[in-house]
Task: structure prediction
Amino acid sequence: MFDCRGVAAVTEIAVSPLAPAAFPAMPAVKGLRLATAAAGIRYEGRDDVMLAELPPGTTVAGAFTRSLCTAAPVDWCKHALAAGAGTGRAVIVNSGNANAFTGAAGYRVAEHTAASVAAVLGAEAHEVLVASTGVIGEDLPVERIDAALPALVAGLCDADQESWKRAAAAIGTTDTFPKAAAAPVAGTNAHVAGIAKGSGMIAPDMATMLAFVFTDLALDSATAQEFLAGSVHRSFNRITVDSDTSTSDTVILAATGTSGHDADTHTDAFREALDAVTLDLAHQIVRDGEGATKFVAVTVTGAADDHAAQTIARAVADSPLVKTALAASDANWGRIVAAVGKAGQRADRDRLAIWIGDEQCAANGVPHPGYSEERATEHLQGDNIELQVDVGVGGGQATIWTCDLTHGYIDINAGYRT
Amino acid sequence: MFDCRGVAAVTEIAVSPLAPAAFPAMPAVKGLRLATAAAGIRYEGRDDVMLAELPPGTTVAGAFTRSLCTAAPVDWCKHALAAGAGTGRAVIVNSGNANAFTGAAGYRVAEHTAASVAAVLGAEAHEVLVASTGVIGEDLPVERIDAALPALVAGLCDADQESWKRAAAAIGTTDTFPKAAAAPVAGTNAHVAGIAKGSGMIAPDMATMLAFVFTDLALDSATAQEFLAGSVHRSFNRITVDSDTSTSDTVILAATGTSGHDADTHTDAFREALDAVTLDLAHQIVRDGEGATKFVAVTVTGAADDHAAQTIARAVADSPLVKTALAASDANWGRIVAAVGKAGQRADRDRLAIWIGDEQCAANGVPHPGYSEERATEHLQGDNIELQVDVGVGGGQATIWTCDLTHGYIDINAGYRT
Result:
């Protein structure tokens, strides 16, 4: 099946109603070459391996799952980033098998993959980052990646609209649309451009979150790591679909430096472009949330500090009762009160205020006198929902993005493996 | 509609498939008198107020929600327990309106209710405990409780099979069956007997968890409080349906002392009977979990300590991905690995072991060589599921009880208010 975004849909599940209207216009990132191939790891009739080749001198940085049960490729990347002091020559990604819960043998598979890619590109193994996504607890048939390597390398071409599309599609699993975003770095001819996959947040099997972000600005590796950590904190760490965390979540930033500009002299512009790309990709993951029919921003203000605000916003965003009410366009703000109450952060019950869109439901811990359930319901009937809670104790604030919880989520997760 | 349990079903939702076969045989608790009435607070054609009269000399203890946004009756009970030094003469409970998020006026309603009951029973207001469950953010029409009081008091009769049934039904909201449990205190003629309501765990509107446990053993109030806290910790605090916490959760223990026996000389027997009753009631709440089709025990062993084990077990029990897999009888133990990984407690990935029923899926961080998915699936096709995880770092262990996540949950929560 081909849709308006011009790529093969990953499964027969319909494209999310919250998907962007079109795959975005993607820039070249000088020096970055992309290729995809069909290695047949699990899927039939689609590309399932993506190779990104990076020019010599590229710096790389990574951010990884906080799960204590990390997958082998995550362990490999952490080792490689340390061993290579943040320099990188390639990123190889496969879908269909996460190489997770595969013990010492799984680590050897990731290491072997890196070494194989390094050998054909004339690089060191620790200059090759590896990411895998798909079923867990099954051995990754690494010989299929080996067999696909010659075709992958032969297919490498400069990143352009078509190769970005193919790359974004190849790394997908239960994703219903390929995810990409780009932004120019103001005052330079450089860009930040990236692709991502993820639809549940974050399932261990097929819905791990992966993102690969590239720039042709020059960055030293310590700065790259610092910028990436900050940007991930403001984007991928602010979304939730179902509160689950994958064993494999990985975000890689690679800076080729081929634009002739460097980040040191364009710090703010680079941060802005990087944040625009990571936030756009993060929002796209929510928009592809399993069964999602509404994109929801939960903003908490008046908390003790920003961290407390984030905890409260997450409690609201993760509440199954809030999420099912949103699915039904039910202005049941009592469920928001309950979620705030259970978050375990300071909140003044008697100063609590709640808004659904622009409609104020509650003020000072009681229903707002002018509240119109009709107007609140009208807002909830759209597919772009804003909830706000002021907890009345301080100046902390945060926004968490999520989606609603629907029959579609149950259909996908109670059915897809059997 | 009347079912085999002989009471009017609360809503038109079908009785949970996990409901006990029959309402249990309930004992008299000497001195305890029960009555119910239809006050018309929200529901038509059913009793929605329950009064339990306690003889002079009764000690009372309470355990309450840890929500920071407590409902007014919770605040009243805390005040009354302190003011009355743990003595009580009555408990009055209404369903249909939770008197939550109602500000200072809501507190005055709870106080007024207590005073009204106290006046007709010849007691002090602080000897009357109040609990309310139902919609939140709406004023409780207290005049309807006042109007029903004469009928309630006239209807008071010794606790017997019929009055227990009526009491258990009157306090229900979205419950699909009335919940009661009893146990004799070995070596005495005394009993522990209680009723509960709750079906989501724990929704702010209609699915708050309330439990009222009575004994004719004599207990001093400090001991009653201590026993209740321990028993709640081992029962109601070990269950989860959807991870949400109510603003109104309340458990009351009342000891009339009318059996002539006291708890000091029967400590172990009393603790055993109390635990049997609270655990039975807690399990019944899970069995009435919204949309539940399977009753699930998640046991974690090998954790750093019991608290860590409980946190990990809760992460597994609350994972929407685990719960949807259980709904589908899908032996997708990778989702259990992911839930363990996100729990934030020490676990040794490379020593992790997982069982579904008696079938070992994983050992030492890799799939178990003898694992039969067929046998695991067979266990999951039953409605009494046991999951076990050993995290390989210590001697801590805990069990959390939960249910699966199904289309029924979405139906109930995305629809019932509209």
Notes: Chain A has eleven helices and 16 strands. The CA atoms of residues 10 and 169 of chain A lie 7 Å apart.
